[in-house]
Design brief:
Strand content: 15-25%
Largest sheet: 6 strands, mixed
CATH superfamily: Aromatic compound dioxygenase
Bound molecules: 3-methylcatechol, fe (iii) ion
Strand order of the largest sheet: 1-5-4-9-10-11
Number of domains: 1
Shape: globular
Order of helices and strands: HHHHHHHEEEEEEEHEEEEEEE
CATH class: Mainly Beta
Number of strands: 14
Helix content: 25-40%
């Protein structure tokens, strides 16, 4: 890829992610938190946790002002969704998923878009004619915790391409490229053809990239397929699958890898790989 034409800038992908969040999430959950005592406790303790860091590390005015300046720029870049989903969401998911009996989940991240094209149980994700990357056949069964097939189960998939870029958050990629909503068959089965995604690098030109550079961290997530699995009467499962032996599986900047989510696709003999991964949904609580 040519670095200058295809690269997603922090400002462009940040603006898209912020807009996406406002559309999809704030009406659903933003107004639900109205318990004054709960807000009081959480806000008081979060502020106190910051005070504690300042005292323990004798934070200076220079450092305080650097923080203030950085926080302002995170908003200007639209990188709050990225920052929160990379460094905070995994603990929220850990708490939310603690009692799950079915498949393990992990973070959603900033790049889910609802309403992807509906696809039959055996299908190929929308992709360019010359889409690069190793072909992958991803198949499995969606069931409840007793192994029963779930009528009407839907498997939404979204992923980066072979350059690590997501449609709708990077320029020049068709809207639904490598995004789809696969309807499982009557026995819960699905078989989807796609390509293996590349590792994802957090934009280096925005505020999150500046923090990473200033702290001496790295900016990488391992290659991953995002999944959202839903069925009537069941908890929706949000997960990601990673590739055994892939770069950064052991040191994901977003801390979202779990051993149960690492797949090991095997060669089909036709230049591609295939993997079977079953998905188990908990009953709705
Ligand atoms: C991603 O692709 C992602 O999945 C997460 C969680 C954060 C940033 C980019
Ligand atoms: Fe991702």
């Amino acid at each position: 890829m040519s670095d200058t034409t295809l690269k997603a800038t922090a400002a462009a992908s940040g603006a898209s992610a912020t807009e996406r969040f406002r559309t999809d999430k704030t009406t659903a959950s933003g107004q639900a938190v109205t318990d004054t005592e709960r807000v009081n406790i959480l806000a008081t303790e979060m502020i106190a946790a910051v005070h504690d860091v300042i005292r323990r590390h004798q934070v200076t005015y220079e450092e305080y002002n650097a923080l203030k300046s950085w926080l302002i720029s995170v908003g200007e870049d639209g990188e709050w969704p990225l920052f929160l989903d990379v460094w905070i969401e995994h603990v929220v998911e850990e708490v939310a998923g603690a009692d799950r009996k079915g498949s393990k989940g992990t973070i959603e991240g900033p790049y889910y878009v609802p309403g992807a094209p509906a696809l039959p149980s055996v299908s190929t994700l929308p992709m360019r004619e010359d889409e690069s990357g190793t072909p992958l056949l991803f198949q499995g069964r969606i069931t409840g915790v007793s192994g029963e097939p779930l009528p009407g189960a839907l498997l939404e998939i979204w992923q980066a391409d072979d350059d690590g870029l997501y449609a709708q958050f990077a320029p020049g990629i068709a809207q639904w490229n490598l995004r789809g909503a696969v309807e499982a068959d009557d026995s819960g089965r699905f078989a989807v053809r796609t390509i293996q995604p590349a590792p994802y690098q957090i934009p280096t030109d925005g505020s999150c990239g500046k923090l990473i550079a200033a702290a001496g961290w790295h900016a990488w997530r391992p290659a991953h397929l995002h999944l959202k699995v839903s069925a009537p009467g069941h908890e929706t499962l949000t997960a990601q699958l990673y590739f055994r032996g892939g770069e950064h599986v052991e040191d994901d900047v977003a801390s979202a890898v779990k051993p149960e989510l690492v797949i090991d696709p095997q060669p089909t003999g036709n230049g591609g790989n295939q993997v079977t991964y079953d998905l188990v949904l908990d009953p709705a609580s």
